[in-house]
């Protein structure tokens, strides 16, 4: 009998989809978990894409519409990560409204990762149908706090011109509750940061236990 065993394929990983209004703290929360993170904002369409939705009265592209985002490419990347543990993902420059390259995300054997972005709820159904979904969360808080946090971040990073960011921020402030309601209607669980961390920890434990059972 050979002492060499055949190489086993990696156990499939699962994803926690983390959504919420722009500025709700998704990126910082994802970093706190220590899990690999897929940034779904990198799947925005480019500014030259003729299918970009437009704001009324020549307000420019509507970057807060799900139609400004390539959901099918995001789902494909999630599926590849879950199946193989690694995937090529785009690098997007929000200030230039353009993809600037490509990077490779490697889960490093982690059985769970986070995919975060304002459109994450739009792929809940596809991930659930494919058996990839560990949880789907929508961060929510005070709209005024989100407004201040979002505007400070966007101005600091120079994402767009200051007048555009102020107009966008006020529009999102007015619409924030409707945005959260839409995400929840698509299947995301609404919660604040402490509960989100607790649910992610539970999903991490469950995924680790399942992975150990599969390996045994």
3D architecture notes:
The chain is α/β, with parallel strands linked by helices and 216 residues long. It is built from 6 helices and 7 strands. It has helices at 26-33, 71-84, 124-129, 143-157, 162-185, 193-215; strands at 14-19, 37-39, 86-93, 98-106, 112-116, 133-139, 189-191. The protein has a 5-stranded parallel beta sheet, sandwiched between helices. A two-stranded antiparallel sheet has the order 3-4. β3 (86-93) and β4 (98-106) form a beta hairpin. α4 crosses α5 (162-185). The longest helix is centred in the last third of the chain and has 24 residues, at 162-185. The protein is globular, with a radius of gyration of 18 Å. The two termini are 21 Å apart.
Which key features would you list for this structure?
two-stranded antiparallel sheet; five-stranded parallel beta sheet; 7 strands; 216 residues; alpha/beta; 6 helices; globular; 19% strand; disordered C terminus
């Amino acid at each position: 009998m050979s002492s060499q065993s055949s190489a086993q394929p990696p156990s499939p990983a699962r994803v926690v989809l983390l959504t919420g209004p722009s500025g709700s703290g998704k990126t910082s929360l994802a970093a706190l978990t220590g899990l690999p993170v897929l940034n779904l904002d990198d799947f925005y369409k480019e500014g030259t894409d003729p299918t970009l939705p437009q704001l009324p009265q020549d307000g420019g592209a509507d970057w807060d519409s799900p139609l400004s985002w390539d959901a099918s490419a995001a789902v494909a990347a999630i599926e590849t990560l879950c199946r193989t543990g690694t995937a090529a993902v785009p690098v997007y420059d929000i200030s230039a409204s353009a993809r600037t390259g490509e990077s490779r995300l490697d889960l490093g054997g982690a059985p769970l990762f986070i995919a975060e972005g304002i459109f994450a709820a739009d792929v809940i159904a596809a991930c659930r149908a494919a058996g990839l979904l560990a949880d789907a969360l929508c961060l929510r808080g005070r709209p005024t706090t989100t407004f201040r946090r979002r505007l400070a971040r966007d101005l600091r990073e120079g994402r767009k011109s200051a007048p555009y960011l102020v107009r966008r921020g006020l529009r999102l402030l007015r619409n924030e509750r409707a945005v959260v309601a839409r995400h929840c209607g698509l299947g995301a669980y609404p919660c604040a940061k402490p509960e989100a961390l607790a649910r992610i920890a539970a999903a991490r434990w469950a995924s680790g236990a399942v992975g150990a059972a599969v390996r045994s």
